[in-house]
What does this fold into?
Amino acid sequence: MARIGMLTLAAALLASPLAAQEQVPEDLTTMPPVPEDGYTPATTSWGDPDFRGTWPLNDFAELPVNRPRQYGDRFWKTEEEIAAEQGRVEQLEEAYETEDEEGTIGLGHWIEYQAGSRRTSMVVSSQDGRLPAFTERGIHDSSLMRASWVTGQTFDWVTDFDSWDRCNTRGFPASMFPFRYNNGVRIFQSPGYVVINLEMLGTRIIPVAGQGEPWPDGVAAWFGNSRGRWVDGNTLEVVTDHIQPGASVLNMATRGVPANNTIPMSEDAVVTERFHMIGPDTITYEMHYSDPAIWEDDFTLRVDWSRDDEYQFFEYACHEGNVQVRNYITADRARREQEYARGTMVEPIDPDAGPPPAMDPASRGAQQRNTEETE
It folds into this structure.
């Protein structure tokens, strides 16, 4: 789970199939539209496009949400840049082999990275490839959010932890983007429904036959109220509203996401997803996010999912024995009692202050990479 416990790891392949799928334009500053036709998937026995299968998110886990400044206005890396990344993969492969030979499991197997995507960011809605700025309310609401990822924060009760810390959910749409492990996604279908099973915390049930009325005001859920429809015989479009605010919209352990796991949401947020099947083993996933109370503009993320029906789900234990929240609280209270005994006054956190610097999300060095990508 988030900062509190990282216990299970879903195996990831080092070689990414993305390079073979991506059609890189001659002008690296342009992003071609998703093909609307050209591939027609098989259909289920009841006539819906057949998207069933396992679609792990591992092969773009290294692709940042926000574009690193070094790429300027380019949506694509040069051939030289991708070759340098491949050299890094080869170094990692050697490290893994050494660990296997020595019978040790170190960070090489704990957090596994991949290379191969020519893309420079998940954001495709702006030329700079970066998320828009917060509104004044967004800045204020972010400063009020609590999480184990926030450096210098005190812990007195369960409300001092975010939904991921408490093993409820990574949030939505955050759950549709990769972490460092347990990135499995399985799609099931039955007449009138598509079910998206997530290896890490949660299952989405999406009606796709026009059934179900919009929820009334005041009713919300972590994954919201999703309503789907089939478009052009190869695309599933899903609109989700009534999302429960509280979880971070994007998780900071997804590469290139702002720090602290404190991206707020208002009650008016709407997520529109389009799952385009562009080949028998490829889904282009687009997520358009709108929440004008929090963000100065809407934004769209786009990634390619690759089918891997050999991928195995592993238990996401979150925090074993459900003791970590209690341990954080008791340890933090003990620390403050010791400081008080030494004559150190503990100042309360100003609810209107900006978020303090981020905690290290997964391992020493991972925070440095995220910082470099968002500067």
Remarks:
- The longest strand covers residues 270-279.
- Residues 18-374 form one domain.
